[in-house]
Amino acid sequence: MTHAADVPLWAAVPVAFLLLIGAGLALAGSIGLVTLRSFYDRMHAPTLGTTLGIGSILVASMLYFSILQTRFVLHEILIAAFMVVTTPVTLMLLARAALYRDEREGNPDAPPRRPTPVQD
Amino acid sequence: MPDSLLLLALVCLPFLGALAAGLLPTRARDAASGIAGTVALACLGLVWAAYPTVSSGGVLRAEFAWMPTLGLNLTLRLDGFAWLFAGLISGIGALVVLYARYYMSSDDPVPRFFAFLLAFMGAMTGVVVSGNLVQLVFFWELTSLFSFLLIGYWHHTAAARDGARMALTVTGAGGLALFGGVLLIGHIVGSYDLDAVLSAGDRIREHPLYLPALILIVLGALTKSAQFPFHFWLPHAMAAPTPVSAYLHSATLVKAGVFLLARLWPVMAGTDAWAWTVGLAGLTTLLLGAYIAIFQNDLKGLLAYSTISHLGLITLLLGLKSELALVAAIFHIINHAAFKCSLFMAAGIIDHETGTRDIRRLSGLNQSMPFTARLAMVAAAAMAGVPLLNGFLSKEMFFAEALTAEAPLSPLLNILPLAAMLASAFSVAYSLRFIHGAFFGPVATDLPRTPHEPASWMRLPVEILVLTCIVVGLLPAATVGPYLAIAVHGVLGDDVPYYSLAVWHGFNLPLVMSLIALAGGVMLYALLQQRLRGDVEGPPLIRRLDAQRIFEQVMVFLSWRLARRLETLLGTRRLQPQLRLIVGIGLLAGAGAVWLRGFGPGNLPSTPVDPVLALVWMVGAAFALGTAWQAKFHRLAAVMLLGGVGLVVCITFVWFSAPDLALTQLTVEVVTTVLLVLGLRWLPKRFQVAGDRGPEVLTRTRRARDLAIAVGAGCGLAALSYAVMTRVPPELLASHFLERAYTEGGGTNVVNVILVDFRGFDTLGEIFVVAAVALTTYALLRRFRPAADSVEIPEQQRDQDGATQHDDAVRPTADWLLVPFTLTRLLFPVMLVVAVFLMLRGHDLPGGGFSAGMVVAIAILLQYIIGGAAWTEAHLRLRPQIWLGAGLLIASGTGIVAWFFGRPFLTTYFAYAELPLIGKVPTASALIFDIGVFALVVGATLLMLVALAHQSVRGHRAAPRRVGSRAGEA
User: Which PANTHER family match (chain A) (predicted)?
Assistant: First the structure.
């Protein structure tokens, strides 16, 4: 924060823009999480934040620190990679749990279950 | 032989013999009695070997340093008085061993008997030769213990068990009192050494703590010597085999009390308090014991009460303010041992040969065992105080003292001669009853066995003892005189008063009193004939005053009612009251501290509140409240909210630049949450019933109170933390650590340097605790049986398993969660790399063994969660126990290595190592220590979590039938 003033304007504008985009996407995802009706709908909303949202912020971070330290700062790529790998795991586990539960409770709002053909 | 060797052998030989006898096979009666007899005779020889020194007034001493700084040494000291007792113990011990060889049945486990008997002999010798009061108390307690074991030797009978327990309770409690008294004496004198104590008589008597010390010591002595009001245990101890009664309950154990009183006589006696406590107890016991003894129908019971009475006589003599009375007391100790021991043996012979000890059934044994009858008659006559026998001499001395003694109050002085005569008459009456009841009258026909004379070896000890009675009675000065003189010299030193051991002192008042008592006793027995033949149990007049009943009531009160009441009052098996108690006490302690010292502002200036952090904290607080709110019915939600609280804490650590803490917090949070969720599965279900009327008033009140306690404790803790964090002490330890972390610890990560270097020993202790906790959890979970309503397999698991019944059962989840499964498998090596990275850089940058271990544990945990226990264990061989053990070995090994370099435990070493490709790397031996921590954390976490996870697998296996039937239906 202390060196923010040292960043030239040509770099500061895209960094700020990217940050705002990321934050806005995260906010939109959060609002969606609150307002959307069914669980399956809600599940999609936070992915805005965890994919494109976090991606924009990470790009902003790379840009900012690379310029500030006058070298390539790239380890945000690792963060992005881990986010990409881990987010689906969480979501699929959640969805699965919800599916089972709805099936048990006979919830009419649940998506219809595809008849599983027995593959031998 | 040097003194120290002699004394050591005297004390240790019996214990060694006991060990040898105890190792013999159960049926080895002859070998065991041979060992016991040899040991007893050897001890007698040792005592005799000490005679030259002791007879010239010398004292044998041996000291072995034990805890010299505390004044506790193993000191053995044999003066004249101790010598006499040691002689009695070993001499009578040898006779009793011979007697017991023939008394004990070959069906009994005789080696055990002799082992206990020898151990008791050693303990008793230890009491008399102790030169240190603490040591004396130690041996004193040992005698109580071995007496307990000997009384309870026939533990298949209830009487033996009860008698043993009662004796142990009474004498053990007395021993405790004695210990207290000894500590007080040691405090007054400044030393526990007997010589120092004996030379500090005036100081002790004038000290303000004299009275408490006196009362405690007298309590110990009175309980041991079965004095009123603690006399009741001795008759019950008669459930012991007769040799035990003859040895412990006439000659040795019960004499320990009077031994102690006589031992401390020079320093503690001479005051009114002493005369009142000791004298009055002795007088009461003398009369009461003799009176009750007349009405006993059991031969051994009669002898037991007679013993109580004679011990009362000795105690009374010790309570009088007169040196001559002390001489009489010591003399009577010897005489009583001789005649009472032989009488017990005679009673044992009668019991052995006829099968009963009931005086009312026994009769006319003079016909069938004339020789034993003669022996018993002489011994009983000695007990009654018939002239020309040893009992007469000490009784004469007692009468003379009763007439001349000083007493604190004159009325006591007046009744003393009368009481003495009365007690003497009683003793004549019970002696007559013993002899007349057992040996005279018509020959009994309904005895369990046909009586005949015992084996001559069994009679030999009785013969020796009776002969002693006669010889001492006839020629006192020539036989017992020198030994008595030695003993009296041992107690009194050089101011021994003049006394005469003649049979005939002329026709004086004591003789008249003796004659009156003899005649009175005979008349009393004749008058009581009618009553004694009846079936009435117990003595007239005081039958209702049963000390035993009072004792039992006290015991029931103490061990049952009081204990139960305290338990219901203070204890609970429910967790909520326990928690309430703990939190309440914590709250009170904190409030007390504030109330005493006040609550002022700290010395640090307050920093402005950052709005972002405040927001984060408000979220955290909301999570915390939500956790409490949901904990009752929605445990899973509560656990998730708790995880949120943990994350907020983690963010706080990051915010305040504590990355190490944040890392640890994050990993611990993950593992804890998984642990809780795994545990939730086994908790009983709890539903909110729709039509519930809501809690009762009482429950509402309780909840309100709990809420108040919780809020109070939480606010208190917050206030405490605030108070701590807003002040800095002038000398902050942290700055010391900050300065020296790199120069002395070789690391720039101060937190890690503290953990593995400065406070390495703490960490070592902590990881041992963690290991113990993990192993305990594992052990507890192995035997875990879930509650009935949580045994059932959860619905989802049932559905899944049902759906995959016809599939390949080995990889059920892999089919269902192929994408997450693959992704987690990909992540596994990455997480391991992260762990290694965290560990290696830990000494200089945030990381370290602990967080690295947690990361590895989490990586494996993820495989479990996604892949399932069966799959993970088929592909990954986890050996948590080996990790655990290796961690402990590595960590402590690092500490030990420092010894080889001549440094203290856990000294660290650091240097820069040149590695190919990577270059110069700072390395410290603390890193190896950290690797140990790492391995331990991995092992402990996995052990606990895997044990919990396996519960599900086991439950699954436990109910396969239901699953099968369900699948069959579908």
Answer: ANTIPORTER SUBUNIT MNHG2-RELATED
Task: Please report the pLDDT score of residue B580 as a whole number.
Answer: 87
Hey, is the C-beta of B799 within 8 angstroms of any chain A C-beta? Answer: yes
DSSP strands (E only) in chain A: none
B-proximal residues of A, 79-98, CB under 8 Å: 82, 85-86, 88-89, 92-93, 96-97
Rounded average pLDDT over B146-150: 93
What single string gives the DSSP state of each residue in B377-421? HHHHHHHHT-TTSHHHHHHHHHHHHHHH---SSHHHHHHHHHHHH
Q: How far is B656 from chain A (nearest CA, A)?
A: 15
The tokens for B65 are: 């340093």
Closest in B795, B803, B824 to A104, CB measured: B795
A97–B796 C-beta distance less than 8 A: yes
Residue A40 Cα, gap to closest chain B Cα (Å): 18
ipTM of the prediction: 0.85
Is some CB atom of chain A closer than 8 A to the CB atom of B713?
Answer: no
pLDDT tens column, B854-878? 999 999 998 888 888 888 888 888 8
Q: Do B820 and A93 touch (CB under 8 A)?
A: yes
Tens digit of each residue's pLDDT (9 = 90 or more) over B502-547:
777 778 888 888 888 899 999 888 888 877 776 666 666 666 566 7
Task: Yes or no: say if A64 and A57 are a contact pair by the CB < 8 Å rule.
Answer: no
State pTM to two decimals.
0.65
In tens, the pLDDT along B41-62 reads 999 999 999 998 888 888 888 8
Q: What are the sequence ranges of the domains in chain A?
A: 4-105
- For chain B, give every domain's residue range: 3-497+505-534, 609-686, 739-970
> Cis link prior to B229 (omega < 30° from 0)?
yes
Q: Which band of pLDDT confidence, cut at 50, 70 and 90, is reported for residue B403?
A: confident
Residue B878 touches partner A, C-beta closer than 8 Å = no
φ, ψ for residue B533, nearest 5 deg: -75, -20
Whole-angstrom distance, CA of residue B607 vs CA of residue B605 = 6
Nearest CA in chain A to B821: A89
* CB-CB under 8 Å, A118 with B823: no
| B817/A93 touch (CB, cutoff 8 Å), yes or no | yes
User: Which residues are CB-contacts of B533 (< 8 A; sequence separation ≥ 6)?
Assistant: B360
| SS3 annotation, B886-912 | HHHHHHHHHHHHHHHCCCCCCCCCEEE
